[in-house]
Design goal:
The protein has an 8-stranded parallel beta barrel, surrounded by 5 helices. It is elongated and about 75 Å long. It has 364 residues and is α/β, with parallel strands linked by helices. Helix 1 runs parallel beside helix 2 and helix 11 packs across helix 13. Strand 1, helix 1 and strand 2 form a beta-alpha-beta unit.
Amino acid sequence: MSATISLREVAPLSIPGVESGSPIVIAGPCSAETEEQTLDTARALSATGVKVFRAGLWKPRTKPGSFEGVGDKGLPWLQRVKSETGMLVTTEVATVEHVRAALDAGVDILWVGARTTANPFAIQDIADQLQGHDEVTVLVKNPVNPDLELWLGALQRILSAGVTRLAAVHRGFSSAGAHIYRNDPQWHIPFELRRRAPHMTILCDPSHIGGKREFVEPLSQLALDAGFDGLMIECHCEPDTALSDSAQQVTPTAFKHILERLVVRSGAPIDDELSLLRQQIDDCDHELLAVLARRMSVSREIGLFKKAHNLRVVQPARYQDVMKARIAEGSTLGLPEDFTQQIIQAIHEESVRQQLNLLNDNNE
């Protein structure tokens, strides 16, 4: 038990072939589907200079009947990737059996997925299995829900097992309603993780945050600009036919072009207080716009109800009650009365405009 080591003492990862200070890039398919697909993708990525190859063997899927990975069958494929390309290999582990099989097969890096990170019992089981394997590297993805303490707890459990080659992976957080990205980045959470563990390697997974391949490059650049230590990107030789997460995977050729266009800037902007605060502003704005979009969606539903029941769009008494309540609520949160009034008035006017459009649309 390494209780004396804190996350603040975790050193940056060193990867053979990756210069100190250069981004660590991990790439490969969401899932290893066949030996040919795995090796073809690995060879193509190796030619671009990638030093770490990723491929999921055990895939925790939301619904039964989905492709849940090839399991142990794929371990020899990863061994071939290692022997033929010289790349390190990594795969996701979610159970003690996964850990044991991966270690026995010589997998270099294990990663713990978001669903597993959210379960302290599962994390502790994995940590117990890792006792005595201080040579292995473990990556811990953030939990599905935006809970920094849960993420920190998972990292601490792995660290307490004696694993010091430890890193975190930011892949965004699940959230309800319509959003630009598949998983809400909530950048302030990995930034706070950085503050708590200033030397630990933190990677960004733009594939899972974006959910679509066109978001991979801009999110990758944003992550590097924010001072993340590297990227984990999903690549597949034929992504449109992939058995899992096809929309967010890029071809090795596209991946190569992305790497060529990315700019690695000097300095460490993630440690700059102003940069952190500005990123939090951006994060708040994204959340605000998503909430407003949901609010207007509900307003349109109300508009349809009013149309079906021949009701007036504007209900003055209701409007006055809402305004009074929101001003009072804003006041308790430290917002000036006139500021809250202007915001609620603007939202109400847009809601009325959309409801009037519905009322006068004979196609509805």
